[in-house]
Amino acid sequence: MKILSKTDIMRHQQCTTKLALDKRENPRKDRPLDESKHPHIRSHYRSEGGYQIEDIAETMFDGIQRSTLYGVRGLLETQSLVFAKAPSIAQASAQSKGNYARADILAKISQSQVNPELRQYIRENYTSTYGGNHALYEIKSATSIRKDFILDLAFQTHVFESSGYKIGRAYLITVNKDFQRNSDQINPHEFLNVTDVTDKVLEELPNLSERIEQAHLTLNQEDIPLSTIYKQCKHTQPDKICPHISYCPNWTNLDPEKTPIFYLPYLSTKKQDQYAEDNVMYIEDIDPEDKKLTKTQTPVVLAHKQDQPLIKLDKIQEFLGQVDTDLPISFLDFETFTKVIPEIGHKPYQLIPILSSTGVLYPTNHLVRHDFIEISMPSNSRFFAESLIRNIESTGTIFSWFMQFEKQVVKQLIDMNPDLEEDLNSICDRMLDLRDPFSKGYYVDRRFEGLTKLKKVGEVLSQDLSYSGLEVDHGSLVGDKWYEMINSDDIHKRNEIITNLQKYCSMDTTSLVRIYQFLKDLN
DNA sequence: CACACGCCTAGAGGTTGGCG
DNA sequence: CGCCAACCTCTAGGCGTGTG
């Protein structure tokens, strides 16, 4: 019998076919395939944050002991720690009837701390035997409580109860996003929120057995179960299709000339099912008059029906009409750094601007480029704000991509440097979003694949523009590299990283300038 | 006249995409 | 992982029309 973990339950929920195939092709891996295949996308310092949160959370438990072994030996270790009456156990594990669960913390509680409703439910459905009562704690580096966290705890409750432990309460430990760090020491009780979610776990428990049973059926079935294609089939790998797609109905012969329907933006699973029922599998096969289409989707469908890009020239001219071409035009791109455990003076996940790249296009068609990079952890980003004001012109349009992000950063700069408010506000007021013509469907190229991100649009419209040769070629790698740089004593390494980061950021700005000129030349 | 029905609208609530 | 805005979906209620 194959062992089912919490991750498997989640995967089963997402796609039964995927769970079966992942397990068959990679039976020893607990993690889904797509995560291990793309390690470079996963940010190192950010996943490290998760472990650091666990370490901090554990300091709230006196006399805590850590179970370090895996597999059967881990199960025995947990048992012996419980029998030895350890007050709390980190990484406690349990297994029963083919289900395996690992708890972040299993802590002893007294009879009076037990939730009566939960015990009532458990008495009716389980036959737990081992000694005292315990509470389960699940530690998350997130700042809010999500439904899958509850499912996670419900699964743990189920498995621990089935293997004989008595669970009396369930807690979530999350990050308090309003916590401001003021000293070297972090008080875990201020930094973390401990929430009793026993009620919610109790709501989840009755549905759980059915889901576990279904997942076991999937795991132990000889034939791979077939399921409909959902949107996540595109997202399992960035911009790529799920590796298992050929197992799914209607997709056994994927037509490389056509674009699968899940590339349609904002396509709900419900509508996707309706299309699948009508055997409409590709964007090219959709009737542009279809009532199910939304106003963002219609231009994408039209663009796929014709050989040329879809262009609404009057709308583009209207957009460009907002630009005063007698004034200089600025282009702006930021990179930021963010981590869960804040630096002194910061809050968890606060955006810290580390790099700005600017370009100013003068009416003479002359382009002047600047950039600014922080070389150590900034406290109030004063230099960043001042350089920004210096590097872009005090009049004229400022273009950026997805400007809400840049605006958000500038607003934070104002909070930290109120005396610069006037200049910084002027920057916000003059900003225009160069993404608008694309997200609003004024210019849609089928090669965009339904996306409107800067890299995609830039590479399609300006063929010689490619990120692939760069050392730093993905946004989430920037933070890792920068953090490595500020913590390094090796001057050569530091300089190398600085150069690579500047190359990456200026590439984005170059894209902006090219895209603007492309739109202008359409006239 | 009451009631059923469809159409429209506002807005609450949830999801998606893009930035890092 | 967070954030934000745009987007989508669903619902309640207003309104007009049709029907018994």
In short:
With 523 residues, the chain is an alpha/beta fold. It contains 20 helices and 13 strands. Strand 9 and strand 10 form a beta hairpin.
**Contiguous runs where pLDDT drops below 50 for at least 5 residues:** 30-41
Extended strand count: 13
What's the total helix number? 20
The CATH level-2 architecture of the largest domain is identified as 2-Layer Sandwich
How many separate structural domains?
Answer: 3
Strand order of the largest sheet: 1-2-3-4-5-6
- How many angstroms does the end-to-end distance come to? 66 Å
Mean pLDDT: 87
From the helix content, strand content and strand pairing, which structural class follows?
alpha/beta
Helix content: 40-55%
Rg, Cα atoms, Å: 27 Å
Q: Report the portion of residues in β strands.
A: 15-25%
Q: State the CATH topology of the largest domain.
A: Nucleotidyltransferase, domain 5
CATH class of the largest domain: Alpha Beta
Biggest sheet, in brief? 6 strands, mixed
Overall shape:
globular
List keywords for this structure.
DNA-binding; 20 helices; 3 domains; 523 residues; Nucleotidyltransferase, domain 5; 13 strands; globular; alpha/beta
How is this fold's topology laid out?
Elements: H1 6-14, H2 16-25, H3 33-37, H4 44-58, E1 64-66, H5 71-83, E2 88-96, E3 99-109, H6 116-125, E4 133-139, H7 147-162, E5 166-175, H8 188-191, E6 192-196, H9 198-220, H10 232-235, H11 269-277, H12 297-305, E7 310-311, H13 313-320, E8 329-337, E9 352-361, E10 367-373, H14 382-391, E11 398-400, H15 403-416, H16 421-429, E12 431-433, H17 436-439, E13 443-444, H18 454-461, H19 475-486, H20 491-521
Parallel strand pairs: 1-2, 4-5, 8-11, 11-12
Antiparallel strand pairs: 2-3, 3-4, 5-6, 7-13, 8-9, 9-10
Helix pairs in contact: 1-2, 1-9, 2-9, 7-9, 15-16, 18-20, 19-20
The structure holds a DNA duplex (20 and 20 nucleotides).
